[in-house]
Amino acid sequence: MRPRWPRRVSAQVLLVQLMITTGVSLLTTGLFLAPLGAQLDQQAERRALAIAQTVAARPGLAGALRSGPPDPAGPVQAEAERIRRATGASYVVVVDTRGIRYSHTVAARVGEHVSTEPGDVLAGREWTGIDHGTLGRSARGKVPLRDTDGTVAGAVSVGIAYGSVRALLLHAVPGILLYAGAALGVGALAAYAVSRRLRRRTHGIALTEISALLDEREAMLHGIREGVVALDRHGRIRLVNDAAQRLLGLGPQTVGAPLHRVLPPGRTADILTGRVTGADLLTVRDGRVLVVNRRDTADGGTVATLRDRTELEQLRRELDGTRGLTDALRAQDHEHANRLHTLLGLLELGLYDEASAFLTEVTGAHRATAEQVTGRVHDPVVGALLVGKSAVAAERGVALRVSPATALPDRVADPRDLVTVLGNLVDNALDAAGGSAGGPPAAEGAFVEVELRAEGSTVVLRVADNGPGVPPAARERVFDDGWSTKPPSPHRRRGLGLSLVRGLAERYGGSARADQRQDGGAVFTVELPEALRPREEVK
Q1: Domain for residue 240, yes or no?
Q2: Segment Disordered: which positions (predicted)?
Q3: Residue where a domain stops, chosen among 121, 144, 168
């Protein structure tokens, strides 16, 4: 039965590292031991050769070799045995030019012919090697024995038993294996430590699950409609899904780039990098209202989610306008009831002329406002917004006037954007003029003036009021996301409207600016290029 391969990543890594460490240790030991035997053989051969050279250099040995026949008790045998015992060699054999032994470890073999021909040595050449002889396998060294005149008188052969070399090798093996075992143990401990760390980082998941988790993550990130942006500890983008690219206006090649290079400075960048903290933070990016939440990761990075709340914000503002109009109509209901009661009393008293004059006076002002708007603003959606805002302004005690220079044709490409810009500007102007919703009426003479005109295909909006105005130092900051001069509201976040206005203007390629009105108050001017359709496209 085949052993089961572990499923967890950490266990697989541990097993693989142990196998690698064991294999490397065995290979290193083998590579070390393989040349060790040859090195020991070479050392023994050089030792045998050195002993042989020492014997051959003994004075008088060549003369003793020529002085008579081989003798087990002769001087050659005695000198050879003395050197053998002193050096620990296995044998020291001296032969004449015929190959007859004059010395041997076994005295009975003195006078016999050697087992291996010494021809090369007798020719004057030294020799070393591992060979077999009558004493078994040995490391041998052979040198020629020369007379005083340099002629070869014989040869000296020294052998060191191979068993002693093998013993040296076996003696070295335990130390080598000890070091190899220590290296293997250190490697095993290191592999175990790496495995434990990896198990904590991977939460013990199986290797086969990693690929599935990555596939599921990619499908989830690119399938959801919420934007997801992940930054590392250095502020570089390491993940951005399709929705985040669309909401932030980022290109596809942004992974790995620092955030400050792909996103301009502003509230959006401050929220993503953590300079602005909180939950459900609102920001405006390219005319879109985004809700951002961020969370720090364990490695010092950040993951942020983005939700598009543009349509909800527009709907909320439309509902705010409708609520204001409803409040105005509810307040006017009492006034209309009083007027009807007055009209009924005049009729009951038979004062018909007075009743007619009273009715004409009451209805004339409202009719004049509606006619003034529709006569200058030919887009029905924008005109309806101004009529509704005029009723709200009247309830707050503020006069909403349409500038004589107003002339807006019925060629608006997207009335919703124009309504968003105009509605925000008018609401801010009404608040600045003193007619806050739900508060006391504005001071006498408070007004808001609206001007809408076309310059080619560009729509220019100008909304002025006679309120306190905007200080010069704040004329740029009023367009910053989250900045407002109004007190905080418990129901909604302040400082979003003008930021949305500038975002829409810049999306059209236009601009939005705040100035001081000549007679006091503020003037907001917004230019929207290409906001009007060409005449030939209008049917």
Answers
A1: yes
A2: 472-495
A3: 168
